[in-house]
């Protein structure tokens, strides 16, 4: 674990100049003629995050022979799209804080958050329009439509205990895995990867994204509120039934009680009891094994990639994400 | 108004509504519509540029999806908190479909221009929303013209070039649309006086009347004439109300 952590840091160090290039693009494009929009954009940029999507795009962009600045543009556009969805998500979730900082909606109001998200999304597409490759647009557009469908389906399935695993997996595919798959696939495409490598890296990104979201859903039950930045069991409190809850539901002794406890008017006491039942059911370990299965599939997909450095860096990054605690 | 224009509107409207459709949004009564004004103005611009029907259909469907995606977000604080999430997502879904259609058209320059328009629209909306001092009526109109007209200007700029005359007339058209909308919504007591509305509409009409006679056969100018017909009546009514009749 310690060695992997060092490796992970080494990858960040190696890509620091290119990540800084992406950061520079983000700063320039988020800057607006309107002071509050600039301030809202900077607030989102400063809240940071791991910049996982840009890093995946940059690594995959080294798979071929092309050394192209377009990879950095694509990486920035993907991150900007992600930022746009976050600022709108905070309105949907009525969130006051993100990573311990006030959200755009709590600083400026819901409408300002809507305009900020729409502004950032336009900037992201504009950035992509500078990349002369129609395949980039087709893939990105297809992915964004599905992401939006996934977000709508998430609300549709709130408090829905009759949803199956298939529904859950389709939802997280759309909500999370697609954007990571796009980061890898588009990075490889613009970086001049062979067709089979582009497809393999897209698959790699998809499986890694699935694992990433499953782990996120496990951490929602185990992470400390201070570190994760939201209350333990926040998803369940909101009515979002994730994999650990669905796995716990398979236990006939728990199913009836869970369904009684989790409903739109659930009290804090009921939520805490439901969370304790899920944590005590062994479902978190099972969910972690599902994430491990996705990680194994991701690493298998990497075998089609010929450049050793890309395989090694993506393997390290994926294993680090699988072991993360926040 | 020609039959082919009406047929095109029906096709574009049906296509746009199909793209906007999501079963759950329908169940939850999230109502969406397309802007007839933006269709008419967009159609006039594309006709003036002699764009082929297939492309007109695609581009106008994308334009109306984008326009609706942006404007439905203005309603986020007007609905119940339980529905806010759906309003957010409905708008995002519309915008994703606009991008999907334009990605199929494959015109990166048009995509770039429309994105720039969206940037300016959101800057104007933020300025309208967060202005600390009361806005003058002229400043209010300037910002509103960006909100309602920038997509049309981007379209005209892309297909007709940056000729100042096109822009001037689209500007007048959008100004008249805003004044009409304000009249319909009875917002004048808050923002504008009837005198100001009357002056603006008269100004728009004067600009139109400056157009050379021959140019009136052009689809964009024909639309302007058609659109301004009822507005002439409104101006007369307003002037009578002001005692200027």
From TrEMBL, chain A:
Record-level GO BP terms: isoprenoid biosynthetic process
Q: Which InterPro entries match?
A: Isoprenoid_synthase_dom_sf, Polyprenyl_synt, Polyprenyl_synt_CS
Q: Which cofactor does it need?
A: Mg(2+)
GO terms, molecular function: metal ion binding; prenyltransferase activity
Q: Which UniProt keywords apply?
A: Magnesium, Metal-binding, Transferase
Q: Which family does it belong to?
A: Belongs to the FPP/GGPP synthase family.
Protein name (record):
Heptaprenyl diphosphate synthase
Its source organism is Alicyclobacillus hesperidum
From TrEMBL, chain B:
List the Gene3D superfamilies hit by this protein, alphabetically: 1.20.120.1450
The record ties this protein, via InterPro entries, to: HEPPP_synth_su1
Q: Name one GO biological process term.
A: menaquinone biosynthetic process
The organism's place on the tree of life at top rank: Bacteria
Q: What is this protein called?
A: Heptaprenyl diphosphate synthase (HEPPP synthase) subunit 1
Give the organism, scientific name: Alicyclobacillus hesperidum
Provide the organism lineage as a comma list. Answer: Bacteria, Bacillati, Bacillota, Bacilli, Bacillales
